[in-house]
# Entry
Amino acid sequence: MGPTSSPPSEAVALLTGQIGELTHTQLLSDRRGSRAWKVQGPRGAVAVKANNPNGDDARDKAAEMAQEDDHLLRLTAADAIGPDYRVSAGTWEGGRWLAVNWIDGVPLWRALALARGPEGDRPAVRPWLAGIARTWTEHLARMHTAGWAHADVQPTNTLITNDGHAGVIDYALACGPDGPPRLPYRGALTHTTAPEIATAILSTPADAHIQAQPAADIWSLGASLFWCWTGHRPVSYDDTTDRLEKLAAIAKGTTTALRDVRPWPFPEFEDAVTACLAPDPADRPTAKELTAAW
# Structure
Protein backbone atom coordinates (compact mmCIF):
# COMPACT_ATOMS: atom_id res chain seq x y z
CA MET A 1 0.00 0.00 0.00
CA GLY A 2 1.19 3.52 -0.80
CA PRO A 3 0.97 6.42 1.68
CA THR A 4 -2.42 7.56 0.35
CA SER A 5 -3.77 4.15 -0.66
CA SER A 6 -7.19 2.69 -0.01
CA PRO A 7 -7.97 0.21 2.77
CA PRO A 8 -6.99 -3.43 2.16
CA SER A 9 -9.05 -5.03 -0.61
CA GLU A 10 -9.94 -7.86 1.78
CA ALA A 11 -11.63 -5.36 4.08
CA VAL A 12 -13.37 -3.54 1.24
CA ALA A 13 -14.80 -6.76 -0.18
CA LEU A 14 -16.30 -7.78 3.14
CA LEU A 15 -17.56 -4.33 4.10
CA THR A 16 -19.32 -3.83 0.77
CA GLY A 17 -21.76 -6.51 1.81
CA GLN A 18 -22.60 -4.55 4.95
CA ILE A 19 -22.56 -0.86 3.96
CA GLY A 20 -23.01 -1.21 0.19
CA GLU A 21 -20.70 -0.15 -2.60
CA LEU A 22 -18.20 2.39 -1.29
CA THR A 23 -19.10 5.98 -2.12
CA HIS A 24 -16.33 7.74 -0.23
CA THR A 25 -12.98 6.77 1.32
CA GLN A 26 -10.88 9.19 3.34
CA LEU A 27 -7.44 8.51 4.80
CA LEU A 28 -7.54 9.83 8.36
CA SER A 29 -4.08 9.01 9.65
CA ASP A 30 -0.85 7.30 8.62
CA ARG A 31 1.58 7.10 11.50
CA ARG A 32 3.27 4.81 13.99
CA GLY A 33 2.88 1.72 11.85
CA SER A 34 -0.84 1.93 11.17
CA ARG A 35 -3.35 3.67 8.93
CA ALA A 36 -6.99 4.58 9.44
CA TRP A 37 -9.74 5.48 6.97
CA LYS A 38 -13.33 6.60 7.03
CA VAL A 39 -15.23 4.37 4.60
CA GLN A 40 -18.71 5.48 3.53
CA GLY A 41 -21.42 3.49 1.79
CA PRO A 42 -25.15 4.02 1.19
CA ARG A 43 -25.98 2.07 4.35
CA GLY A 44 -23.56 3.74 6.71
CA ALA A 45 -19.94 4.55 7.53
CA VAL A 46 -17.20 2.66 9.32
CA ALA A 47 -13.67 3.37 10.49
CA VAL A 48 -11.11 0.93 9.10
CA LYS A 49 -7.65 0.42 10.56
CA ALA A 50 -4.81 -1.63 9.11
CA ASN A 51 -1.17 -2.06 10.03
CA ASN A 52 1.38 -0.54 7.68
CA PRO A 53 4.00 -3.26 7.08
CA ASN A 54 6.49 -0.62 5.95
CA GLY A 55 5.96 1.66 8.94
CA ASP A 56 7.59 1.86 12.34
CA ASP A 57 6.80 -1.05 14.69
CA ALA A 58 4.91 -2.72 11.83
CA ARG A 59 4.98 -6.18 13.39
CA ASP A 60 3.73 -4.93 16.76
CA LYS A 61 0.89 -3.01 15.11
CA ALA A 62 -0.43 -6.14 13.41
CA ALA A 63 -0.37 -7.94 16.75
CA GLU A 64 -1.94 -4.93 18.45
CA MET A 65 -4.76 -4.91 15.90
CA ALA A 66 -5.44 -8.58 16.52
CA GLN A 67 -5.40 -7.85 20.25
CA GLU A 68 -7.92 -5.03 19.87
CA ASP A 69 -10.26 -7.31 17.93
CA ASP A 70 -10.04 -9.88 20.72
CA HIS A 71 -10.78 -7.17 23.27
CA LEU A 72 -13.81 -5.95 21.32
CA LEU A 73 -15.25 -9.45 21.11
CA ARG A 74 -14.78 -10.00 24.83
CA LEU A 75 -16.05 -6.55 25.81
CA THR A 76 -19.15 -7.04 23.66
CA ALA A 77 -19.81 -10.43 25.24
CA ALA A 78 -19.51 -8.80 28.69
CA ASP A 79 -21.98 -6.03 27.69
CA ALA A 80 -19.21 -3.50 28.34
CA ILE A 81 -19.57 -1.97 24.87
CA GLY A 82 -22.51 -1.93 22.46
CA PRO A 83 -22.95 -4.87 20.07
CA ASP A 84 -22.87 -2.57 17.04
CA TYR A 85 -19.44 -1.04 17.70
CA ARG A 86 -17.29 -3.82 16.23
CA VAL A 87 -18.14 -4.32 12.55
CA SER A 88 -15.60 -6.85 11.28
CA ALA A 89 -11.93 -7.82 11.24
CA GLY A 90 -9.56 -10.04 9.33
CA THR A 91 -6.21 -10.54 7.69
CA TRP A 92 -4.76 -9.09 4.52
CA GLU A 93 -1.54 -9.75 2.66
CA GLY A 94 0.36 -7.32 4.87
CA GLY A 95 -1.09 -8.17 8.27
CA ARG A 96 -4.37 -7.32 10.04
CA TRP A 97 -7.30 -4.96 9.59
CA LEU A 98 -10.20 -3.97 11.84
CA ALA A 99 -13.45 -2.11 11.15
CA VAL A 100 -15.60 -0.39 13.77
CA ASN A 101 -18.73 1.71 13.62
CA TRP A 102 -18.10 5.33 12.67
CA ILE A 103 -18.69 7.82 15.50
CA ASP A 104 -19.52 11.21 14.04
CA GLY A 105 -17.74 13.44 16.51
CA VAL A 106 -14.61 15.53 17.10
CA PRO A 107 -11.75 14.90 19.55
CA LEU A 108 -12.15 16.35 23.02
CA TRP A 109 -9.54 19.09 22.54
CA ARG A 110 -11.36 20.54 19.53
CA ALA A 111 -14.76 20.16 21.17
CA LEU A 112 -13.72 22.16 24.24
CA ALA A 113 -12.14 25.04 22.30
CA LEU A 114 -14.93 27.46 23.25
CA ALA A 115 -14.88 26.37 26.90
CA ARG A 116 -11.15 27.11 27.18
CA GLY A 117 -11.69 30.85 26.78
CA PRO A 118 -13.55 33.39 28.92
CA GLU A 119 -16.38 33.38 26.37
CA GLY A 120 -17.15 29.87 27.59
CA ASP A 121 -18.39 31.30 30.87
CA ARG A 122 -22.07 31.17 29.98
CA PRO A 123 -25.01 29.21 31.44
CA ALA A 124 -25.43 26.91 28.42
CA VAL A 125 -21.82 25.70 28.54
CA ARG A 126 -21.96 24.29 32.08
CA PRO A 127 -24.57 21.55 31.47
CA TRP A 128 -22.96 20.79 28.11
CA LEU A 129 -19.55 20.29 29.73
CA ALA A 130 -21.04 18.21 32.53
CA GLY A 131 -22.94 16.12 29.97
CA ILE A 132 -19.73 15.28 28.13
CA ALA A 133 -18.13 14.16 31.38
CA ARG A 134 -21.20 12.18 32.44
CA THR A 135 -21.58 10.25 29.18
CA TRP A 136 -17.84 9.56 29.20
CA THR A 137 -17.98 8.09 32.70
CA GLU A 138 -21.03 6.02 31.72
CA HIS A 139 -18.88 4.29 29.10
CA LEU A 140 -16.11 3.68 31.62
CA ALA A 141 -18.55 2.44 34.26
CA ARG A 142 -19.73 -0.34 31.95
CA MET A 143 -16.16 -1.44 31.34
CA HIS A 144 -15.19 -1.23 34.99
CA THR A 145 -18.23 -3.21 36.10
CA ALA A 146 -17.13 -5.98 33.72
CA GLY A 147 -13.64 -5.99 35.25
CA TRP A 148 -11.90 -4.04 32.49
CA ALA A 149 -9.86 -0.84 32.33
CA HIS A 150 -9.66 1.04 29.03
CA ALA A 151 -6.02 1.85 29.82
CA ASP A 152 -5.76 4.51 27.09
CA VAL A 153 -8.15 7.23 28.25
CA GLN A 154 -7.02 10.42 26.54
CA PRO A 155 -8.41 13.31 24.48
CA THR A 156 -7.87 11.75 21.05
CA ASN A 157 -9.69 8.57 22.07
CA THR A 158 -12.79 10.51 23.09
CA LEU A 159 -15.06 11.88 20.37
CA ILE A 160 -17.73 14.45 21.17
CA THR A 161 -20.89 14.32 19.07
CA ASN A 162 -23.10 17.26 18.10
CA ASP A 163 -25.48 16.49 20.95
CA GLY A 164 -22.67 16.73 23.51
CA HIS A 165 -22.18 13.01 24.15
CA ALA A 166 -18.79 11.37 24.52
CA GLY A 167 -17.90 8.33 22.43
CA VAL A 168 -14.94 6.17 23.46
CA ILE A 169 -12.70 4.51 20.87
CA ASP A 170 -9.46 2.50 20.62
CA TYR A 171 -9.52 -0.53 22.90
CA ALA A 172 -6.20 -2.05 21.81
CA LEU A 173 -4.46 -1.50 25.15
CA ALA A 174 -7.41 -2.38 27.39
CA CYS A 175 -6.69 -4.55 30.42
CA GLY A 176 -9.29 -7.10 31.46
CA PRO A 177 -9.77 -10.45 33.14
CA ASP A 178 -7.52 -13.34 32.19
CA GLY A 179 -7.61 -14.10 28.49
CA PRO A 180 -5.25 -15.07 25.69
CA PRO A 181 -1.59 -14.03 25.92
CA ARG A 182 -1.27 -10.33 25.19
CA LEU A 183 1.26 -7.66 24.36
CA PRO A 184 2.70 -6.17 27.56
CA TYR A 185 0.96 -2.98 28.61
CA ARG A 186 3.47 -0.24 29.35
CA GLY A 187 1.22 2.79 29.61
CA ALA A 188 -0.20 4.94 26.84
CA LEU A 189 -0.08 8.72 26.28
CA THR A 190 2.40 10.11 28.80
CA HIS A 191 0.39 13.22 29.73
CA THR A 192 -2.62 11.22 30.92
CA THR A 193 -0.71 8.40 32.64
CA ALA A 194 -1.82 7.80 36.23
CA PRO A 195 0.86 8.06 38.95
CA GLU A 196 0.68 4.37 39.83
CA ILE A 197 1.16 3.38 36.19
CA ALA A 198 4.08 5.81 35.88
CA THR A 199 5.65 4.30 39.00
CA ALA A 200 5.23 0.78 37.64
CA ILE A 201 6.78 1.70 34.28
CA LEU A 202 9.80 3.18 36.03
CA SER A 203 10.28 0.24 38.40
CA THR A 204 9.77 -2.78 36.12
CA PRO A 205 11.57 -4.23 33.07
CA ALA A 206 10.52 -2.87 29.69
CA ASP A 207 8.93 -6.18 28.70
CA ALA A 208 6.90 -6.64 31.91
CA HIS A 209 3.12 -6.36 31.68
CA ILE A 210 1.45 -3.76 33.90
CA GLN A 211 -2.18 -4.57 34.65
CA ALA A 212 -4.04 -1.27 34.58
CA GLN A 213 -6.95 -0.96 37.01
CA PRO A 214 -10.16 1.11 36.71
CA ALA A 215 -8.79 3.75 39.09
CA ALA A 216 -6.05 4.54 36.56
CA ASP A 217 -8.76 5.30 33.99
CA ILE A 218 -10.28 7.78 36.43
CA TRP A 219 -7.02 9.69 36.80
CA SER A 220 -6.64 9.74 33.01
CA LEU A 221 -10.20 11.01 32.68
CA GLY A 222 -9.51 13.84 35.12
CA ALA A 223 -6.22 14.66 33.39
CA SER A 224 -7.93 14.81 29.98
CA LEU A 225 -10.71 17.09 31.19
CA PHE A 226 -8.23 19.29 33.08
CA TRP A 227 -6.01 19.60 30.00
CA CYS A 228 -8.72 20.23 27.43
CA TRP A 229 -10.68 22.69 29.58
CA THR A 230 -7.76 24.75 30.88
CA GLY A 231 -5.24 24.32 28.07
CA HIS A 232 -2.70 23.16 30.67
CA ARG A 233 -1.62 19.62 31.47
CA PRO A 234 -2.18 18.70 35.14
CA VAL A 235 1.50 17.93 35.71
CA SER A 236 3.89 20.63 34.58
CA TYR A 237 7.04 19.75 32.63
CA ASP A 238 8.79 20.97 29.52
CA ASP A 239 7.78 19.37 26.21
CA THR A 240 11.42 18.58 25.47
CA THR A 241 11.78 16.60 28.70
CA ASP A 242 12.60 12.91 28.28
CA ARG A 243 9.58 10.61 28.67
CA LEU A 244 11.04 8.86 31.70
CA GLU A 245 11.57 12.21 33.39
CA LYS A 246 7.97 13.16 32.65
CA LEU A 247 6.82 9.87 34.15
CA ALA A 248 8.95 10.54 37.24
CA ALA A 249 7.22 13.91 37.65
CA ILE A 250 3.79 12.27 37.30
CA ALA A 251 4.73 9.50 39.75
CA LYS A 252 5.15 12.09 42.50
CA GLY A 253 1.36 12.57 42.45
CA THR A 254 1.48 16.37 42.57
CA THR A 255 -0.70 18.27 40.11
CA THR A 256 -1.26 21.94 39.32
CA ALA A 257 -4.15 23.42 41.29
CA LEU A 258 -7.11 23.65 38.94
CA ARG A 259 -8.23 26.99 40.37
CA ASP A 260 -4.91 28.52 39.27
CA VAL A 261 -5.39 27.73 35.57
CA ARG A 262 -9.16 27.40 35.02
CA PRO A 263 -10.55 29.72 32.33
CA TRP A 264 -13.61 30.51 34.48
CA PRO A 265 -15.14 29.15 37.71
CA PHE A 266 -17.25 26.00 37.67
CA PRO A 267 -17.03 24.70 41.27
CA GLU A 268 -18.89 21.39 40.87
CA PHE A 269 -16.92 20.45 37.78
CA GLU A 270 -13.63 21.53 39.38
CA ASP A 271 -14.32 19.43 42.48
CA ALA A 272 -15.01 16.30 40.41
CA VAL A 273 -11.93 16.73 38.22
CA THR A 274 -9.74 17.37 41.25
CA ALA A 275 -11.09 14.23 42.94
CA CYS A 276 -10.17 12.21 39.85
CA LEU A 277 -6.57 13.38 40.20
CA ALA A 278 -6.09 12.12 43.75
CA PRO A 279 -2.59 10.58 43.91
CA ASP A 280 -3.85 7.52 45.83
CA PRO A 281 -6.07 5.35 43.61
CA ALA A 282 -8.21 4.44 46.63
CA ASP A 283 -9.14 8.10 47.09
CA ARG A 284 -10.53 8.56 43.59
CA PRO A 285 -14.25 8.29 42.87
CA THR A 286 -15.50 5.38 40.82
CA ALA A 287 -16.96 5.85 37.36
CA LYS A 288 -20.42 5.14 38.76
CA GLU A 289 -19.99 7.77 41.46
CA LEU A 290 -18.81 10.29 38.88
CA THR A 291 -21.77 9.55 36.63
CA ALA A 292 -24.06 10.62 39.46
CA ALA A 293 -21.86 13.60 40.43
CA TRP A 294 -21.67 15.29 37.02
Q: What stands out?
A: The chain has two domains: 9-101, 105-293. Residues 105-293 form a domain with the Transferase(Phosphotransferase); domain 1 fold (CATH 1.10.510.10). The chain is about 35% helix and 15% strand. The first strand starts at residue 24 and ends at 31.
